[in-house]
Every structure is written in C-alpha cells, then in structure tokens.
Amino acid sequence: xxxxxxxxxxxxxxIVTEVDTKDIKTFRLAFxxxxxxxxxxxxxxxxxxxxxxxxxxSPIGIASSPTNPGYVEFTVQKxxxxxxxxxxMEEGTIMGIRGPLGNSWPLEYLEGKNVVVVGGGFAFTxxxxxxxxxxxxxxxxxxxxxxxxYGARTPGLLIYKDELAAWSKRDDLELHVTVDKGxxxxxxxxxxxxxxxxxxxxxxxxxxxxxxxxxxxxxxxxPVFFELGFSKENIYTSxxxxxxxxxGKCGRCNVGSKYVCKDGPVFSLAExxxxxxxx
Amino acid sequence: MEKRLIKKDALAGIPKKIRxxxxxxxxxxxxxxxxxxxxEPQEEPLVGHYQNTKNxxxxxxxxxxxxxxxxxxxxxxxxxxxxxxxxxxAVLFGVRPCDARSFALLxxxxxxxxxxxxxxxxxxxxxxxxxxxxxxxxYRTCFCTSVEGxxxxxxxxxxxxxxxxxxxLVEFLTPKGEKLGSYFEGTPASExxxxxxxxxxxxxxxEIVSHIPAREIKPILDVNFDHPFWDTIHxxxxxxxxxxxxxPTCHCFDISDExxxxxxxxxxNWDSCMYPLFTKETSGHNPRPTQKERWRQRTMxxxxxxxxxxxxxxxxxxxxCVMYCPVNIDIRKIVEDIxxxx
Lengths: 279, 342
Hints:
By secondary structure, chain A is α/β, with parallel strands linked by helices. Chain A has eight helices and 15 strands. Chain A is globular.
C-alpha cells in the first residue's frame, strides 16, 4: 500500500528571493529519485506539503507548470515555523514534498474559452503555473484570448519580475501589471486590481475568470466581474485552510462537508455558494 | 455463519487462552476505572462483569499518539530513516456493540477508495473483534438504537457473544471470526437459541431509555447553518476536549515533529475540533473563531457532514460524552433541540 504520509526526498537546486522585503522566496526542487518525479504528476492549481523533518509540514501551492519538467517550484512567504526554516535553507539541502494534493484549475473546462487570470500579491503562484501551462506551445491553441491582470502593493513586491517582462513581449497574452503605489523608477500602471479590472473590462463572452489574491482584493474584484457579466459558474478561486494530512482525514480544513485539501482547493463561486461560509 | 453455545463459566478463560497466540486487548480494571487496553500477563480481563470501558477501543487502531516515521540529521539535511508501522495479530475481546460499530464507521474514512491510511489499515486488518452484546443495557445514557445500532448489533464485529441467561451464544460473523472457532468449545446452537436471542434483544432494546431523532435532524441541519440556535450550546463549554477524546468515532488528528540531538520522529496525535488552535492559521485568521463555530462543527460533522460523505451518522450512542462532560453538555439534548427548530 502506498503511504501518502511519506514525503519524496527532493534537493533544493535554486532559491530566488522574489521581493525587496526578502520574505518571499521561490524554491526550485528536484527529485532525488527519478521515479518519484513520475509519481508526482501534477496539474496547475494543485498543492503539496513541504516537509521539513524536525520542523513540520506546510501546504503550499505549486508555482511551476508540468510543462517544465525536471523540477517543481514553490513560492513561499516566511511566516511560521516551517516556512521560516525553509527560508534559512541553502541550495543543495535535501528536504521532502508530499503530493500532489487537491484538485486543479479547471483546465478542460477552460479549453476553447477566453481566460482572464487575476492575481494579487504573492497569491499569484498557482496562477503563474496556470499561465505557464496555457501559453506553452503544446497548449496555447487550446485556449482563446488570455488576459493576465496582476497587482502588488509596490513594485518591489511584484513576484516573478523577469517572467512578467518576458510575458509582456508576447503577442498571444495580454498582460496588465499594476501596483497600488509606484516609486520613482516605476513606469507601469498604478491602481488597485479591482480598478484595473474595470478599466481593462475583459468581455464575459465565452470567458472564465480565475481569481486569486488577498481576501480584500477578492471582495472588491468580484463585483467588477459580476458587472461585466461573468456568472458564478465562470469565476474560479482557490481556498486556503490550516491543513495537516492533505488527504481528507485529519478533519480541520473542511468547509461544510467538503475538504479543501481533497475536494478543493479550487472551487467555482457557484460551488462556494453551495458550501457554508466558514473559511 | 456458525453459531455455538458455550458454558457460562467457560468465557472467562477464553481471552487468556487466545493470549497465548495473539496480542489481546480487553477491558481491565485499572484503579477505579475499567479501561480497554492490551492485556498484560498478570492481568485479569473483565468478561461480562463490566458495563463499558471508560476509553473507546478505537485507540487500538488509531492510537492517541503514534510514531509515523523516524529521521536523522545528515550533512545534507534531515533525512528519513524508517517508517514505523508495527501491527500485531490482535484480538479485541469484549468490545461493546456500539464501539464495534465505530470501527465500521472509521473504516469509511481511513479506508477510502482513493486515500487509504496505511497506519490504521495495517492494524485493523490484523485484528479480530470479539464483541460482547449488551444483554443488559449498561447506562441510562445509552442511545445506540437511535443511531442505527443496537445492544445486540454485530456491525464491525467478527464474533458476537450474547448472554442467553443459561449459556452464551457465540456467532462467528466473518471468516476472520471463524478462525478463532477453536477457542470457543461448545455445542452447535439450535433454533431455540436463536429464539432466545430474539427475546434478549427485545428486552434489551426495551431497556434503552434515551431516544434521539438523529437521522431526522439531517434536513434541518442542511438549511440551518446560521440559525440563532448555535448561540445556545457553547457558552458553558470549557473547550477541554473530553468529548472528542472519549468519542469512539472522533478521528481528527495532528501531525507533529520531535527532535532530540540528531534523531527525530514524526508523530500523529489525537486532536480536537474543540480547541481554538485546531483551525488557526499562521496569519492569525481563524475560520472557526469562537466555541460557537466549534460546537457547530462537531454537531454538523457527526449528523450532517458524515451523512453527506458516507451516508452514516458519526455517532454510536455510547453516551461517553454525555457522562463525562464536566459542564453537562448533552448531545442528546442538542439533537432533540435541533429537531424542533423552525
């Protein structure tokens, strides 16, 4: 019997400090055993338990895309015991990951549709995975127009800066990057994500919005999309809860009778409406 | 399915005989309490002369604390040393029908199609459950018949023993149970014994004084997540967690790490939805911020969520939470009150 509690050993092969506050880093992990990579077949939107023996485990969304094989990436904010220990790690360290866990962004449902990706702050991680997946040459033709709206509080808090620069040069992806407040070097947009969504006004025709960000951003962004004509069936988001097992047994991440770890983390607003508002 | 009659005085010797070949868990008197525990050589198991154990026997399959794996510090980081999954051939002797039923309920969760819990399953598969039916209903707080069980119910059991007054009727309910046949010397049971059992069953069920509308409240819970009723349960709750630790079906757990010098272990411990930290996130946000939400969760989990997911009520009617709550919160009253909500 497979033991879902035992993490796969992985080596930290690259660490990138994403923001000028230095508390958000991206960890690139490579499987120590090649066969484990085969078993860890994931899709954008899924997450994994980052496992540090002696410290504990932390559930984190997968930031890389399966279209880039050979490694898995996680962008992690330094916050608690596990993530603080993670931030102190050096390249070459062996740690563990357990997963992939949960469902994924509705990739099949998105096929043939226009996709609006909206992200705020460092909740952009699984959206980056989704975007990488959709714009990959094997997949790009499956999707219609792709619009990405991404915002952070300051230019220094934007993550994946190099990648954003590369995306901005593509003609098969419409990118809008905004910051709440720019600095002297900032030449881009200024304004909150909901306001920018209103300006960009993506059409709701045959379109799905995928939204991830801090609760305050989501609260003000949703009305904009309702006004644009997006139905609750066509708006997706991802939930977070405190988790331990990741496989629906330990009993803490349920929202009503659904477990965020195994029935989620991705839900449409229509699905969330049918659940209890306890998250 | 074989049935046998055994002499009344023969029962007491059986668990000791089984112990020669198996690890035996049975009710044992320890100080003032009767607890369900592993039978040590010098210990006398209680057979028949007890009501029910203070602790639920679920701990045999899902221990209060269990080591999941061990690891060791190396120059390249802390690495896995070994996975711990000890499971002995065990016999649980003298389980009450309500507690045996809890195994069947826990199987639904730990032994699902997609996500199997190897720690639970390893122990469960190697164990045989010998249940002692409640020919006399132990407590006024028993309400097994309201939650799809009964004093002579065999669900979750491999062998069911019923006191018929003159003899014990031994029913081997599963192939696993039949393998213990040689320990129970007796005569084949006649139809007479079957009739006698039915009489005992009628009498025992009649002795149960607590009845709750456990199934009936499901549709009410479906639509009353925000009802003001939820403000009425929790105010005297101390958040001690006793109800969840004694409950035969509560299965929530925590996973934690311990390290001493270069060696460490990852453990799983029982956790409780009654505790504020259970759902508190690193950010400080807590989706169940007060005892009100926690009580709603406990009630909903047992009488709605488990029914939604597995079509079974996650309560066996043992009454332990009713008996041992230090502030007399009574799940029977909660269910009764919910049934009257408009």
